[in-house]
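Quick review question:
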């Protein structure tokens, strides 16, 4: 675990309420809900002036959302860089985690191993790791994947529905999430046929 020492001071709830979304802060580092004995760079999820009691919510650069009561002495609190403060341990941003779903036509164990070896050669043997592996047979089929509002208009015909075309490969649906207020619609794929008369 790579950390660096940063000089910072703890903020009171009143000071946090003056922060904006652009202000850099440090909050307790967590991994899968388990607090680590150090801090992570973060920012508030909404301006501090919107604080109406309860806890402030911050999002770390690692994507974790943390709820904090700054004035609670039993909590790690919210910190900001300050040369007049004290030293705290801060997690470094060491890289990027990629979640990859790979489609291998006529895939077999040998082709998967060669993909893995190529990735290790490109990025280093200690960098590329397979955390979980799921081998799924993909059918030779296409579907039309659409998004449409979760609360559709009543009596709206299928021709006039407010929808957006997204994809035609069903296996990718498992790795996608619908937009807020929208839902997925999956239909058998229909090739677009241009029936414009030609001479």
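Suggested answer, residue by residue:
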């Amino acid at each position: 675990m790579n950390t660096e020492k940063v000089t910072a001071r703890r903020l009171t709830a009143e000071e946090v309420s003056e922060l904006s979304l652009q202000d850099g802060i440090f909050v307790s580092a967590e991994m899968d809900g388990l607090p680590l004995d150090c801090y992570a760079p973060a920012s508030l999820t909404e301006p501090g002036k919107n604080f109406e009691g309860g806890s402030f919510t911050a999002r770390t650069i690692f994507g974790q959302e943390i709820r904090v009561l700054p004035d609670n002495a039993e909590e790690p609190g919210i910190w900001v860089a300050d040369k007049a403060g004290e030293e705290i341990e801060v997690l470094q941003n060491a890289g990027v985690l990629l979640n990859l779903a790979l489609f291998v036509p006529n895939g077999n164990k040998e082709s998967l191993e060669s993909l893995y070896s190529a990735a290790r050669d490109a990025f280093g043997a200690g960098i590329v790791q397979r955390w979980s592996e799921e081998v799924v047979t993909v059918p030779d089929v296409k579907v039309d994947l659409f998004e449409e509002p979760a609360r559709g208009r009543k009596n709206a015909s299928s021709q006039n529905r407010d929808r957006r075309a997204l994809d035609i490969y069903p296996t990718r649906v498992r790795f996608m999430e619908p937009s807020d207020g929208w839902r997925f619609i999956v239909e058998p794929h229909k090739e677009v046929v241009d029936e414009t008369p030609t001479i």
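Why it works: The longest helix spans residues 109-123. Strands lie at 3-10, 25-31, 34-44, 56-60, 65-68, 79-81, 86-91, 143-149, 164-167, 182-188.
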